[in-house]
Design brief:
By secondary structure, the chain is mainly beta. It has a nine-stranded antiparallel sheet. Strands 5, 6, 7, 8 and 9 form a five-stranded antiparallel sheet that branches. It has a two-stranded antiparallel ribbon with strand order 1-2. The chain is elongated and about 90 Å long.
């Protein structure tokens, strides 16, 4: 008997439309038995039977077959349906992805991918997507994001990283927009003429550059109390500047460029002989967000067939 929402044993929610509260399942325990399979799926339109599905699908969450292990993943299923593993990145808020690494998959060990991403600016939130590909057909994106932060100025070529404390150096820039002011015969004011869409930065940097000793903590390979040690790196850094190979220039304020070092770097002493500083100029030659620029300038091995057009 129900009277005003109360049944005979006093349940206040006896007539509520949603008398139960279903919470997310985040723990499963099996014990005191012998089990052939543990199969969990997101699908709700299945029939309860004693037989598991024949293979994984996109609704499958886990499937433990207990064949000598408690593995409940789908590595074997992915191996059968994956030819390549792709790593992509993009600045958070942007729509366009950029492919930064590709790995051909031939065994389960190939599902491990490591890639040092030097194209991330300080303080910038970046999203990464890892996805399987079967001969050009992309699978589901597994997305995460991170924010990097550093206090040094870095110049990078391949896996070689040189840096300097920003307090020991500086980098001044100029924005170049080639144009001319044309003075007319009967005009008081000149006419501004710009016949190109060229719009790029040039700059001058100075610092006591030394190699990076620890990539994870961005530790430079010298002791601040012994400036004389810097002089041992000056010739190597000068050779690095003058090898004519494009480089990545990163500042701790979030600015980042693809640059070419221009003539002629100079090595000078700052107050004392052993405290050497290198001054050099550069010109911007491409965009770090362009897969085409990265490829043709030698920063990336990702060919046109993998670009996100």
């Amino acid at each position: 008997m129900f009277i005003c929402g109360i049944h005979s044993v006093g349940g206040a929610l006896a007539c509520a439309l949603t008398p139960t509260n279903i919470k997310n399942i985040n723990y499963v325990e099996l014990k005191n038995g012998i089990y052939d399979d543990l199969y969990i799926t997101k699908a709700t339109d299945f029939e309860l039977t004693n037989a598991c599905p024949e293979e994984w699908d996109f609704d499958t969450i886990l499937w433990a077959k207990f064949n000598g292990s408690t593995n409940a993943g789908n590595v074997d299923w992915n191996l059968e349906n994956t030819s390549h593993l792709i790593l992509k990145s993009r600045t958070e808020g942007n729509f366009q992805w950029k492919t930064i690494a590709i790995k051909e998959v031939e065994s389960t060990e190939d599902f491990v991918i490591n890639y040092p991403d030097y194209f991330v600016a300080s303080g910038q939130s970046v999203e990464y997507a890892l996805l399987p590909v079967l001969y050009g057909l992309e699978g589901n994106y597994a997305i995460t994001k991170t924010v990097s932060s550093f206090d040094n100025m870095f110049l990078i070529e391949g896996n070689t990283v040189w840096g300097t404390k920003i307090t020991d150096g500086f980098c001044d820039t100029t924005r170049n927009i080639p144009s001319a002011n044309v003075e007319l015969l009967h005009g008081r004011y000149p006419v501004f003429v710009r016949n190109t869409i060229a719009n790029y930065d040039t700059g001058n940097c100075k610092g006591s550059f030394i190699p990076l000793d620890d990539e994870e903590s961005c530790t430079l390979a010298y002791d601040n109390a012994h400036d004389y040690k810097r002089i041992t790196y000056q010739r190597d850094f000068m050779d690095f500047l003058c090898d004519s190979i494009p480089k990545i220039l990163k500042l701790p304020d979030g600015r980042l460029w693809l640059v070419q070092v221009t003539p002629n770097p100079a090595d000078t002493a700052n107050q004392k002989y052993n405290n050497r500083e290198t001054t050099w100029s550069w010109v911007e030659i491409g965009s770090v967000d362009s897969e085409e620029d990265l490829y043709y300038l030698g920063f990336s091995e990702i060919g046109p067939e993998w670009w996100n057009k």
